[in-house]
């Protein structure tokens, strides 16, 4: 399997912008109170089109190029440094990526200015998932990739005072959340796609290496 397959976890591509809409604003820049981010999920659920289902704890370590960025669609704001999975149930998931090219890109925001922004959307299409599972007693090994049309996406949910309360992927079952597509290298049992979503435990975001929370700021 090629190690050149890249991974990124962040917010959605164009299909996920339905209901978001890029809005005119008086403040033309957004940012966070740190350039080093850690996002932790106690469990993320991965569901395949052929009945595959795997649940794993996931941790993302990310860097921002700068803590402040211009609100311009597809602006590169940072990259994923690592994505780790813990002990999974139902199979195993491994993310494949190169940190040097796993770009995070800003897409849009939802809410009203100046302080009513409720959440922002960040995405990256450079993603790979290596899945091992068992179906009907037979081992299955699959490789899925994200595409520009179905990028990995995350919503950064913000309270009124600016603190980011949680980070969430789109709910499972949403049509636009079919984010990983079969690379053609796995068995027929792999199916055409696999989706990732929450299990009721939302992502906690902090400054990497600490318990300090992160605030989304408008400039």
Question: Care to describe what's here?
Answer:
The model is unreliable at 1-25 (pLDDT under 50). The protein is elongated and about 55 Å long. Strands 2, 3, 5, 6, 7, 8, 9, 10, 11, 12, 13, 14 and 15 form a 13-stranded antiparallel β-sheet that branches. By secondary structure, it is mostly beta strands. A hairpin with a 2-residue loop joins β9 (128-135) and β10. The protein has strands at 29-32, 36-48, 53-64, 68-70, 76-85, 91-96, 103-112, 116-124, 128-135, 138-145, 152-158, 164-168, 180-182, 193-198, 204-207, 216-218.
Put simply, the count of helices is 0
Q: Roughly what is the average pLDDT, rounded to an integer?
A: 76
Strand residues, percent:
over 45%
Q: Could you list the spans in which at least 5 consecutive residues all have pLDDT below 50?
A: 1-25
The percent of residues in helical segments reads under 10%
List how many beta strands DSSP finds: 16
How many individual domains? 1
What's the Cα radius of gyration? 17 Å
Key words describing this protein structure:
13-stranded antiparallel sheet; 51% strand; 3-stranded antiparallel sheet; mainly beta; 219 residues
């Amino acid at each position: 399997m090629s190690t050149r397959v890249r991974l990124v976890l962040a917010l959605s591509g164009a299909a996920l912008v339905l209901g978001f809409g890029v809005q005119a604003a008086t403040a033309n820049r957004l940012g966070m109170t740190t350039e080093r981010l850690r996002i932790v999920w106690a469990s993320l659920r991965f569901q395949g089109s052929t009945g595959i289902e795997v649940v794993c704890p996931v941790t993302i370590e990310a860097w921002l190029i700068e803590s402040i960025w211009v609100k311009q669609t597809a602006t590169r704001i940072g990259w994923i440094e690592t994505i780790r999975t813990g002990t999974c149930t139902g199979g195993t998931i491994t993310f494949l990526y190169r940190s040097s090219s796993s770009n995070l890109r800003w897409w849009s925001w939802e809410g009203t200015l100046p302080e009513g922004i409720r959440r922002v959307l960040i995405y990256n299409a450079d993603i790979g998932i290596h899945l091992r599972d068992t179906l009907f007693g037979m081992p299955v090994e699959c490789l899925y990739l994200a595409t520009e049309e179905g990028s990995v996406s995350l919503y950064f949910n913000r309270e009124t005072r600016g603190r980011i309360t949680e980070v969430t992927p789109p709910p499972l079952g949403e049509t636009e959340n079919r984010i990983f597509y079969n690379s053609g290298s796995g068995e027929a049992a792999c199916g055409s796609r696999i989706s990732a979503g929450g299990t009721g435990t939302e992502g906690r975001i902090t400054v990497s290496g600490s318990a300090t929370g992160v605030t989304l700021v408008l400039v």
